[in-house]
Each structure stands twice: as C-alpha cells, then as structure tokens.
Amino acid sequence: MSIAACFRLARAGFTLDVDLALPGRGVIGIAGPSGAGKSTVLRLIAGLEQAEAGRLQVNGSRWHDGATVLPAHARPVGMVFQDARLFPHLSVRQNVAYGWQRIHPAARRVTLAQAIEAFDLGPLCERDVARLSGGERQRVALARAVAVSPQLMLLDEPLAALDATRKDEILPYLARLARDFALPVLYVSHAPDELAQLADHLVWLQDGRVRACAPAMQLFADPDSPFNQREDCAAVIPARIALHDGRDQLSQAVFDGGALWLAGLRHPPGAAVRLRIAARDVSLARGTPTHSSILNILPATVTALRPHGPWCLVALAVGAATLFARVSHRSVRELALGEGVSVYAQVKAAAMS
Ligand SMILES: Nc1ncnc2c1ncn2[C@@H]1O[C@H](COP(=O)(O)OP(=O)(O)OP(=O)(O)O)[C@@H](O)[C@H]1O
C-alpha cells in the first residue's frame, strides 16, 4: 500500500519538482507556506493539471507513467475544497447521489446510505443546500466525494472557511474518513491544530520542493522539522483519557511518560486523544516546584536547545514523549540548561488543546 508521486512543472516564476513516496493509507497532511505548490500537487494527482514530466502510482494502479496519462474523469478520486461547491438547485440527498449514480453498480464500494450516515446527513436529506450552515455544507461535500467510491481523497483546506466551533464538529468526521472507508486522504492545511489531530504522515512543501516527508509523530517531535520553526510551535503527544474530576472540571490524560490534568476537554474516559502543548505554555525549573498553581509538573531531560528568534526552544524527553519549552536565553544561562540536564517541566492545565 503506497503512493508514489513524481512531478515536474514550470510556470512563470514557479517551478514544482517533487518526488513523493507516501503511505497508501491514513491521513497524509501537506503543509507549507502560501505559494509552495500544495494545491498544485493535489491538482496534478487529480489529473486537473498536466506535468511536463510525471509518474503517479496509487496503491498499485498507474495513473501517470511517462506519456501514458489517465484522464481526470477516469481517476477514482474524491475532492473537497475550502468552499463546498454544492449544486445549489439540488437537495442534500441529490447532491450526495450525484456522483454515486454515475458509478457503475459493479464498481460501487459505498452505498448511498453509507455515505449519508457516515456524515450524519439523514435528518438533512431533503433540505435545500442553500439553507445549510457552513459545517453542514462541508459534510455534504465530504459525503458526495465518498459516494463515488474513490481510491484516494484529496482535501484542499476543507475547514479553512469555518469558525473554531464548526471546525471541531467536522474534525471527527475527517478522522473517521480514512479509517472507516479505508481510504488514503491527502489533506492540505495551514492549520497546525488540524494536522496535529489528523495526520499520520506529513509533507512540508516549500518553493515547489519537498523539505520534509516522514511519519507525523517523528516530525512533530523533531525540533529541526519545519513544523517546529513557527512562533506557535507545539508538542503533539498521543494520550488516553483516564478519568474526569467533575468537581474541578478537570480530566486526566495518561501518556507514555506520565499523566497530565487538562481543563475543558469533552472526551469520555478511555478516548484516545492527541494533546497539543504549545512551547510557550511550558516553563522549566531545576528543583521540584512547590506551592505553584500549575497542576502538571513532569520530570524531564533536556535533549536539544535551538535558538528561536529572541527565545530558545528546549526539547525535552518525558518518558518516550517529546515536549517543547520556549524560554529566554537568560533562563538558559541561569538554569545552566544543556543536553542531558534534568529539569521539571511545568504545564498549565488550561494550556492544552
Ligand atoms: N493557474 C495558475 N496559473 C499560473 N500560476 C499558478 C496557477 N495556480 C497557481 N499558480 C502559482 O503556482 C504557485 C503554487 O501555487 P499553489 O496554489 O499550488 O500554492 P499553495 O501552496 O497551494 O498556496 P496556498 O497555500 O496560498 O493555497 C504559486 O506561485 C501560484 O501563484
């Protein structure tokens, strides 16, 4: 199960030259600065644009091999963009059924009912799409894309136009998309929180080139990865909700390195979560801090220090997990921080998403 995508394309002022070897399952996040070529890569994979030279193989099927190019209409892909692009004159059900009807019955791997149920569209089925919220419209667009029995989903910033609440509503549907339909999902996004929640594998594009391509957890934990050069750099830690303390409205999450108290989390006990802990929300101490309002104090070992503008980014091993702290250069000197030094990492309960 793999995707091999190799494209070269030149436009005025922009050259794309990528050779990607990707897993053929799970969510593959594609990030990078504006104009890096992310949408162009999706369009080339969909066959909506032609490369000067290219090769594309998706889980054993050759879609582009030198001069042999499968036309866009023959490629089994489902695409969803920032704007839902629904057919305005059709109902929700008719929108979802649109592509499904065009698939030969013998080639259908998804029933219309499955596509509707997977995105909880049952109660909206007869609704005119003009009367849907932004989040509902994106659910219809996702269901319509899945209904064509694709072998690959291409999502180009599908949540970018939604506010934070709507985004939180849609994220679980996206997480289930790759899992329940056993579909590889290429997911272009500028939002680190979305990638932290969804991505199994990550690609960073810059100036039309691949700067990083690796399993998501590996890149999230690497202080040198392009994902950690931003001001809002954060650690991503897989964890499981252990219990809720109703009196203080806190949840405890356990991870491979200890436990953390969190505020405002809605997941039930037992749920698998990915904690995103911003480096600016982690402070360091050399001794055991006492009489502090900070609920989470974790013994840690410094594994790397990197200059981060006016700050220093400190990578910490906490059991098998990596945490980041952003501290001043003065703190680095005063605490005599260096590789291998033992510290206590302090994380506020409210500082996780
Ligand atoms: N149809 C087009 N014709 C000519 N140039 C284009 C076309 N579409 C995009 N470009 C250019 O190609 C480059 C890559 O664009 P692309 O849209 O793939 O970047 P992106 O990484 O998706 O950016 P963003 O994050 O802003 O959406 C940019 O320089 C862009 O201006």
From TrEMBL:
Domain ABC transporter, chain residue ranges per copy: 1-232
What stretch or stretches form a coiled coil here?
Answer: none
Give GO terms: molecular function aspect only: ATP binding
Keyword Cell inner membrane in annotation: yes
Query: What Pfam families has UniProt attached to this entry?
Result: ABC_tran (PF00005), TOBE (PF03459)
Annotated Mop domain ranges read 291-353
Keyword terms? ATP-binding, Cell inner membrane, Cell membrane, Membrane, Molybdenum, Nucleotide-binding, Translocase, Transport
Top-level division of the source organism's lineage: Bacteria
Q: Which PANTHER family match?
A: ABC TRANSPORTER I FAMILY MEMBER 10 (PTHR43514), MOLYBDENUM IMPORT ATP-BINDING PROTEIN MODC 2 (PTHR43514:SF10)
Its recorded name reads Molybdenum ABC transporter ATP-binding protein
Q: From which organism does this entry originate?
A: Chitiniphilus purpureus
